[in-house]
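Morning run. Coffee first, then this:
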Amino acid sequence: MMEMTEKWVWYVDAELVSSLLAVEPANAELRKRAAAGPEFVTAMRHFVEGRHEEALTELAAAAECGNAGECLAAMGQIRFQLGRFEEAAASFEQAAAARPPHPQARYNQALALEKMQRYRDAALLFERTTQAEPRRVEAHLGLAVCLLNMRMLEPALATFSRCLEQAPSLRQARFGKAVALQLLHRTEEAAGIYRALLAENPSDEQALANLIGIGLDQGNYQEVRTLSEQLRCANAGHRAALEGLAASALAAQDYSTAAAVCAQLTEVEPEMMEAWFNLGVASQKLGRLEWAAKALSRASELRPDQAVVHACLGAVMQQKGDWEGAVRAFSLAIQVAPTQLESLWGLALSHENLGNAGQARAVLEQIVERTPDSADAWYRLGYLLSKEQNWAACAAAFEKCARLRDDWPEASLSLGIARWHQGDKPAARSALQRAAKYAASSPEALRALEWIAMETGEVRPVEPQREEAEAAPNPALSRALLGLGEALRGLGRHQEATECIEQARRRNPILTASKPK
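And here it is:
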């Protein structure tokens, strides 16, 4: 049976950059000025009362009566606060072009563009503002945030540093600088800034979340657990806190805790594939196969491009004995990653358990093509060919297996059986002698060799010294005995066939579900 993967999939949250910017309503001088007219006053009253469209109508009328810049800027601010950023950007652009222009309009237009993730356009406007007002910290901050989101990390880092030269304690600039350092893999410097922010505010969720991300990258699960507990105290349902707790529990093989946390994470983030995948892994480790199958099925729906998810679902289906479900899952895995050997093995064995011998053989032929040095693959292919009584191809497969591992007695024994069925007694005798050389501690193998030697009519191989103690279980030998039993059954020697097959099954009760070692 395919072994369930021990690894899990965790992606550090890409949203490291928090909302650092806020719209600038106007400068202090404008606040002291008289309103632009009675329409402006009426519009502000409508806005305070929540009658936003009426406020916008009044402001549009006021803009035609005079002081259009301030009225258009106010329209932009209302639209910005309503989340209508494209309309807000247009209003601010009109305010900047009005006569007289609104002094904050270009800056606020840049903010609206940044909200629409039009970082390049926003950066140009922020840069124009910094050129006009070199000491304006928030303009430098806006430019730095845009550069950061454009992944222009070195320029972003330099711009955040310029902000801090003017305002050393500015939290947004310190946090942004730490993010830039983190993305540049200068994690110790980034962590130092995050810890300084936490010293000032132990409940700083963004700093805690990004420190958890660093801990996950470094595999420092003890620190991840501590930070995640701290973040959960601040926000019980924070995604980063749950991710950190789940990852640290999985690393400690505390699958019960991992399953509970991952289940909570699926409620907080129902579209998060990683949460469902890890819930499936933890459930499988706890033997909760139905839960594992449901969780992994959901993960495969969310991310059908992830071969490892389909492969793990296939492994769970194998454990459940749902061989058809296993075939479907492994087939999906192979569609995504055609050369993934683990999935090919799983598919071959699932087909074999469904009785689809031809399909199982076809998959094994793909395996030996991709891994021609795999003795296990050649052995399993030979076994399937023996069931088809295709003795020439069977012998060729066992021959390659025996050459790759000449000290594997079961491979030589199986080769001898295949040669015997071909009628090539000298080749059968040669293979049996090689098997006898390495089978001294196996009474079952010796009895099989004795029988084959007598059947070929050749001189019996020299019998090695037998050991009194029973040999340790040997899965490969069990497969050879099963093959011998099939051969005896084909000759009509049913009693001897039954004895061989029973010996094989006593040694390995799940023989037909196991891949050769």
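Residues 119 and 149 are 7 Å apart (CA to CA). Good start to the day.
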